[in-house]
Amino acid sequence: MDIIIFNNILRQGEGETVEFKTSFGKESIETLVAFASTRGGTLFVGVNNNGSITGTQTGEETVQNWVNQIKQDSSPSIIPDVEVMNIEGKKVVIFSIGEFPIKPVAFKNRYFKRVANSNHLLTITEITNLHLQSLQLSWDAYESHDITLNDLDEIKIKAFIHKVNQGGRFQLEGKWQTVLEKLSLLKNGRPTNGAMLLFSKKTPQYNIHIGRFKTPYTIIDDRMISSTLFEAVEESIRYIISHLKVAFEFTGDIQRKEIFEYPLAAIRELLLNAVVHRDYTSPVDIQIKIFDNAITFFNPGKLYGDLTIEQLKTDHYQSRTRNKLVAESFYLTKDIEKYGSGYIRVRREISDYPTMEFEYEESGDGYLVSLNYQTQKTKNEGVNEGVNEGVNEGVNEGVNEGVNDLFSLVKENPGKRAPYFAQNMNTSVKNIERWLKHLKNDEKIEFRGAPKTGGYFVQK
């Protein structure tokens, strides 16, 4: 190593790829293993952590013994490059290791990676994710042990194929089994974990738990949604929308303008992000909490790969996809757009909401996102056309589906009351009453008969 480079490194100090040790020991091997599991790095033995040279007593045989010890105590075995420098009569041993192709690397059955200037002991989940990532595989690409081909729902698969072909991003032709093979959702004739999540007849054991909170400890209403992913997203967005506040703006047009307290496209984007990128090896549920002035999304699994919070704050970050087949499926149906652009769209949508803040952080073994505001938006000044109407077809369907389904139910079952509709639509009476009011205001239905015995009819 050039003496100028050496002195520059000492001045800059320890970091993600540099560590100083006054002597060689097990902590030195931990550091080299952590470097190998991250981006590689250089270990200086004979240097204090403040960058001052202490030197180390070594001979040619001593250094070779250290290399052998590193090789024996690491798995897979790593062999660093070694250089001995003599600086003002003091010896410094420099170990350099590159990023290892198969990760993570262990030291005596313990796995580490480098985080900032320290070694981080990996959890079981982090070990699994890092290994899959190094092999350029994802958990959803493995054969499922829970279902067989007969356990896949053909109706769901054909609906998916139709939606993909209608969207125009890709054309899927042939039998549905052939289509799933082309998309790697079938492997060796068996469904992968991705196929299980998307199309299983059985209910996957991955829930979305949504609650309406008055305070952090007072729950007004909650719902546990357990379904395959496309259905879970639509059911979740309907439930969330049913609990959002709506302001009405009268502009002189025939129809009033609805202004939801959050931009619906942003809500949908954050929901999709939680579903597509969650860690499905974790038993923890996705948790969505709706408060008076905030909504939070928590999904198990920290940021994947080397993506950081700081990178997410820019408009130039690159997506890191934990579940490649799931993400590809949602991309083909046009539920998600170009990879790595989700947060850009969220920031664009909330730009028309003056007091709204968008915050995100790693929390425990998961990831937490929140939208919150001080003052609810009640006017559409400066709003891009389409915010209230929805940016994509899925939002439009989510906003109006409850009201439209109720109108159809009234037509098919004239004279019934709110509890009957609530039971048939599997929702609360409160939601039904709000939708009935909407239909009455639009003069689509009317109430006939006495208050206790009458019911709702389609208005002629």
Task: Report on this structure.
- The protein has 460 residues and is α+β, with helices and mostly antiparallel strands.
- 36% of the residues lie in helices and 22% in strands.
- The chain has three domains: 3-122, 2-Layer Sandwich (Methyltransferase, Cobalt-precorrin-4 Transmethylase, Domain 2), CATH 3.30.950; 208-391, Heat Shock Protein 90 (2-Layer Sandwich), CATH 3.30.565.60; 396-458, Arc Repressor Mutant, subunit A (Orthogonal Bundle), CATH 1.10.10.10.
- The strands form six sheets. A six-stranded mixed β-sheet has the order 12-11-15-16-18-17, covered by helices on one side. A four-stranded mixed β-sheet has the order 1-2-5-4, covered by helices on one side.
- A hairpin with a 2-residue loop joins β6 and β7.
- The longest helix has 20 residues, at 393-412.
- Residues 382-399 have low confidence and may be disordered.
